[in-house]
TrEMBL record:
Listed name of the protein: Glycoside hydrolase family 2
Domain called Glycoside hydrolase family 2 catalytic: residue spans: 317-505
PANTHER family (UniProt xref): BETA-GALACTOSIDASE, HYDROLASE
Domain Glycoside hydrolase family 2 immunoglobulin-like beta-sandwich: 175-281
Keywords: Hydrolase
Pfam annotation, one family: Glyco_hydro_2
Family statement: Belongs to the glycosyl hydrolase 2 family.
Lineage: Bacteria, Pseudomonadati, Pseudomonadota, Betaproteobacteria, Burkholderiales
UniProt-listed GO biological process terms: carbohydrate metabolic process
Superkingdom of origin organism: Bacteria
Molecular function GO terms recorded: hydrolase activity, hydrolyzing O-glycosyl compounds
InterPro entries assigned: Beta-gal/glucu_dom_sf (IPR036156), Galactose-bd-like_sf (IPR008979), GH (IPR017853), GH2_Domain-Containing (IPR051913), Glyco_hydro_2_cat (IPR006103), Glyco_hydro_2_N (IPR006104), Ig-like_GH2 (IPR006102)
């Protein structure tokens, strides 16, 4: 396992991974409530791989409502604090250290932590126990593509239970920086920083921020901490010349990151120090175009579900996450739509570092109830908070294809849910566009996303060609059998993007573990796959109505054999050929690509 520090935008030097072997057991009857009741540990699991996965050593994809984990670690108590952190645990977790409950958390895709300083054993030998409840039949929890049937069917895949991202410990001072957030302001050539101090209260605190571009010092400022917070704007020296100014702008073509070093002082005493990074990058909508750094930018994206054959939702390691970013770029895409998954922060780090745009989408619940909406709101809020500072994240998508809100055309309260999540997202982050419901039945949205899997390019031209007025499109066209906009929400000039299309299935090397393949269209040979992809991409790219597109999909995912890559990331046709087709230019749009 090659797991790097899991929280790259607040990276400390003193940390210890707890990935590796843990004791494990299922608890199908929910017979145990505290660690002391457990009468044995019949299995061992490799964390952070879920028990359904082969890499975990368990490989049990049956229905299990609850499970338990336990392991020891050596850590001597000291004068500092010790924080226990979990990247993600699906779905509801309770954590004990040395038999004492230290934290509970609900939500399968977002991090949580506990200060365990007060429960450490003086002997230096510590025990952590985790109980996870994850009812496989509960459709009111955000679960994304995790199937509720025993065998994966249609477009749903094996479940993920329990720990599926890194578990780690870190030592921090008694008073420390608990959280930071970066907001770029390209127009003012500035970076806003928000920081919060945790731990013991202390007087005369200040935070020093140092920003660098390579070896070049951009800023070194010191701000007083008031009420445990710093909220300041760092204005960079304006070079006055566009070429020089643009050197600092982040884009997929030139992913310029600004390295940051932050220090917390009490008077002249250094208390805390860590590294971070940010970028100068702006995204917004201007009329019918997506704008990156103030210029129209055509999005060429691929839908990425973030599954691996042996590890499921969990990444095999940091190298695998980096490789997925590199492969998307090698195929000519400038962005990915992470579909029904809040991805590991290390993926976002590599997207930041290597230059790949990311649409972040909330995993869906599949029943509409007050409980489902409360759970969605809570977890979505945590996801936005976690990923706000990543420059690669450019769009938020709280709902997809009316999943979890299936009666949008008839039930007003379901419309209210979509509208509420749209406005909540805009409140939590005023810097990025938001798609209320991607695919069809749009209401509150900054971009109208259309899902259309028709492989017939003549049909695509007839629906979306130059002779089709937008009002005719929204009044008459029904891709997927769904209306594109709800009554009362006419097209207001927002960008229109084809955010799902293609889905061409082709098995270059049949997978013995998959009983049947699934796709919207099936190609019988490499040549036919190449021809269908080429014809479809050429048609979509040259359709002026679209200001961006997202092809389905990046890699085969279990029974869905419609990836450009196989499940183990081998290209079905040469990468160079895919890139050649994906990057075909269309009529020049100023600032476009």
């Amino acid at each position: 396992m090659d797991f790097a520090y899991p929280r790259p935008q607040l990276q400390r030097s003193q940390w210890t991974s707890l990935n590796g072997p843990w004791r494990f057991r299922f608890d199908d009857e929910c017979a145990f409530t505290i660690p002391a009741e457990i009468d044995g540990w019949p299995m061992q699991i490799t964390v952070p791989y879920p028990p359904e996965s082969r890499a975990s050593g368990i490989a049990d994809r049956g229905f299990h409502k609850a499970c338990w984990y336990q392991r020891e670690f050596d850590l001597e108590p000291g004068s500092d604090r010790v924080i226990l952190r979990f990247g993600a645990v699906d779905y509801a977790a309770r954590v004990w250290v040395n038999g004492r409950l230290v934290v509970t958390h609900e939500g399968g895709h977002t991090p949580f932590w506990a200060d365990i300083t007060h429960v450490l054993d003086a002997s230096g030998r510590q025990t952590v126990t985790v109980r996870v409840e994850d009812d496989p039949h509960d459709l009111t929890k955000p679960r994304g593509k995790q199937d509720w049937q025993l065998e994966p069917h249609s477009i749903w895949y094996p479940r993920t239970t329990g720990i599926w991202q890194t578990v780690w410990l870190e030592r921090v001072p008694r008073t420390y920086v608990e959280k930071i957030r970066w907001t770029p302001e390209v127009e003012g050539y500035a970076i806003k920083i928000e920081a919060r101090v945790g731990g013991d209260a202390a007087d005369d605190l200040a935070i020093e921020v140092e920003l660098r571009h390579g070896e070049r010092l951009l800023a070194r400022d010191r701000y007083q901490v008031l009420e445990r917070e710093v909220d300041r704007e760092i204005v960079l020296s304006d070079p006055g010349i566009d070429d020089f100014r643009n050197e600092l702008l982040w884009s997929p073509e030139r992913p310029t990151l600004l390295d940051a070093r932050l220090r917390l002082y009490r008077g002249n005493q250094l208390l805390d120090e860590f590294s971070s990074y940010t970028a100068l990058r702006s995204v917004h909508i201007l009329r019918d175009r997506f704008m990156l750094n103030g210029r129209p930018y055509t999005l060429r994206m691929v839908l990425d579900q973030g599954y691996w054959p042996d590890t499921l939702l969990a990444a095999p390691g940091d190298a695998a996450l980096r490789r997925d970013v590199e492969l998307a770029k090698a195929m000519g895409f400038n962005g990915v739509r992470k579909h029904q998954k809040i991805e590991d922060p290390r993926y976002l780090y590599w997207a930041d570092r290597l230059g790949l745009l990311v649409w972040e989408e909330m995993p869906s619940a599949y029943r509409f109830t007050r409980t489902a909406i409360k759970r969605t709101v809570r977890e979505w809020t945590e996801a936005i908070d976690r990923d706000y500072s990543h420059p690669c994240v450019i769009v938020w998508v709280p709902f997809n294809e009316s999943w979890g809100v299936p009666e949008l055309t008839a039930v007003r309260v379901q419309r209210h849910a979509v509208e509420a999540l749209y406005h909540l997202t805009k409140t939590l982050d005023a810097t990025r566009p938001v798609i209320g419901n991607d695919g069809w039945e749009s209401s509150a949205t900054d971009i109208i996303g259309i899902h259309d899997y028709d492989i017939n390019t003549e049909h695509i031209r007839q629906r979306y060609g130059a002779e089709i007025a937008p009002e005719q499109l929204f009044d008459r066209r029904r891709p997927g059998g769904r209306i594109l906009t709800l009554d009362g929400y006419p097209h207001r000039g927002q960008p229109i993007m084809l955010t799902e299309f293609g889905g061409i299935a082709f098995e270059k090397e049949p997978d013995p573990d998959v009983k049947r393949i699934w796709g919207y269209t099936v190609a019988r040979s490499e040549e036919e796959f190449d021809r269908l992809y080429s014809q479809l991409l050429e048609t979509v790219i040259h359709t002026a109505l679209f200001s961006g597109f997202c092809y389905t999909q990046f890699a085969d995912t279990f029974q869905e054999a419609n990836g450009l890559l196989t499940a183990d990331r081998k290209p079905k046709i040469p990468l160079e050929r895919i890139a050649e087709v994906t990057k075909v230019s269309r009529t020049y749009i100023p600032g476009g690509v």
